[in-house]
Every structure is written in C-alpha cells, then in structure tokens.
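Please check this chain.
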Amino acid sequence: MTLIIDRPAAQGDSPEPWEPDFTSADVAAPPTALPVTAELTMVAAINRALRDAMVADDHVLVFGEDVATLGGVFRVTEGLAETFGAERCFDTPLAESAIIGVAIGLAIRGFTPVPEIQFDGFSYPAFDQIASHLAKYRMRTHGDINMPVTVRIPSFGGIGAVEHHSESTESYWLHTAGLKVVVPSTPSDAYWLLRHSISSADPVIFLEPKRRYWARELVDTSAPAPPIGRAMVRRDGTDVTVITYGGLVATALNAADLADERGWSLEVVDLRSLNPLDFDTVAASVRRTGRAVVMHEGPRTLGFGAELAARISEECFYDLEAPVLRATGFDTPYPPARLEKVWLPGVDRLLDCVERAVGQP
C-alpha cells in the first residue's frame, strides 16, 4: 500500500497552474535505456510518457482497473508495475467513483495521481467525484491545495466496440469549470500533452482517441511539443477552416486531399486542448478563409461545435462569408458497431458542409 506523506511545503504557493517548459535536461531517462527519438504508436507514446513522468517524480502514481496485472485493456500501462513496483502502479476495484475519490485524496496528500478510467462510457459513475470535488478543490481552497490529477480516458468511437465503449464525453467536462480537457491526435502530441498534463497543478481530463492508438509517428522525447492551451494548424488552406480534434484530425486531412480535386483549399486546425482553448489560432484561421466548419464525434446538440460556432460568430462576424457549419454525430445514442460508420461524421459529411459553405453567395 502506498505510504501517506505530508503535503510538500511548496504545495499551493502559487495559484497559477504548473506549466513547466520542458528541456532535454528535464526529461529523465527511463530505467531501461530507451532512445530519445523513436517511431512509436500512440499507445507506446503514452506508455513512454507515463514511464518518463514516473522516473522524473516518484510522487507520480498510476492506477485503475487492470492497469498493473494486465497492462490495461489496450496495454497502455504495460510494464509499469514491473518497473516501478506495486506501490506506484496498482490495480483498483471496478469502482470508478472510488478511483477518482482515491485520486483526490492522494493529491491532497502531495501525490500526483494518474488514474485510468477503462472506457469513456465508464466515466459516468465517477461524474459526481469529478464535477463536485476534483474540478473545484483548488479554487475552493483559494489555491492552497493543488489538484494535480490527470484522468486518462480511452475515448470516442471508430473501433467497432460494444455499448458504453465509444462515448464522446468532452462536453460534460468542458461545462465543468475547473477542469482542463486535452485531446491528442498524434503519438507525439500524446506524449507531450500527457507530460504537460501530469505537470499541471489543475486537474486534467486526458481523452485518448482509441481509433488513433495504432497510428505511428517519429516521436522526439527531448523536443517538447506546444503546451496545453495551444492549437496547431495541421494543413494550410485558403477557402474553408476545418476545426476539429482527436481522431477526426486524420479524417479532416483526408477530406482536404479530396477537396483539392474539387478546387477547394481546406485549412485544418487541430485544437489539441479544448480547455483552455487557443481561440487566437482559430480566429486567425477563420479571418484568412472567411468560412468555418467544426467537426466532432459527439451529438450535434450542445456539442463543442455549438460553443465554437457561437464564439466565432461573435468575434469574427465581419470576417465570415458564410455561417459556421457543423459536421457531427447524430442526436441519438451511440449505435451498434455495425452502424458505427453511418453514425460517425466522416469525409462525406465534412465535404457536404464545405460545399454548403463555399456555395454561399
């Protein structure tokens, strides 16, 4: 069992989140000599980020359902228990509310918990702990107690899973003030956004797009990617801005290739961080193109696209040549696996919105 220690003296000295600038000297080498740069899947990149964070700070703890013995359903935590021992990587009962409650208690005592919720749809039993306590504790104590908890959740659809295994929960967390919400789209972003999340004094909901778990990329663990709160333009364009995140970034890039054949130039903005939101990058892109389409997997009504469309309309109204459109999932429960491809927004649904946007007089 993990020993309880006194809260560090530095805890709560600053009300601002910890957002360190990582340098190669800050990134500790893992116990086994792994190369600084390697081609990694997103699964391997997240595993590497957890290993490196645990080496750099022995207060970092990883726990959840089957994360130690099995290495997690997707083997994201494989090898951590063997490397760091059962006191720092351990299995929990099948009780999501208890997992988050334990994480909150450990954070109060000075630890840096990184709990895993096994699947997106399993996060609902933990909703009260997250919304009522995790999100509010730091402000409730006027910054005296930090809440450096990163909740990892394999999220979204696209893998043909059964019920409650393909949910888009981001709108719940975004509506809950006090939480940072992060969604990587590439292995490199998964590594660095997780490192930044673990180093934050605020709680972070880290949503991992399952459909991108097996995407490969060269990851440099010595050259930090942009921090939480920064979007990235993944493709330059002149006609329409496509704003998306997570697994749909690859979909948007594929759509941009097909749009070229029709004479439409799409600019693809990967949000990466939903809260805090880098609206400056979004606005700059919309002002260049004059048109915007927001794309996300979750249902249309009150999805994050609604917030983005409202804010773009408020702040970029005189730059718009057409209404902001949304390519989203439907306002129905997530369907059985055989209907998943029909339900999820894809290239066709996005290009339909693009056609409507460029067809405006």
User: Anything to note?
Assistant: The domain at 232-359 is CATH 3.40.50.920 (Rossmann fold). The CA atoms of residues 136 and 242 lie 33 Å apart. The chain is about 30% helix and 20% strand. The longest strand covers residues 292-299.
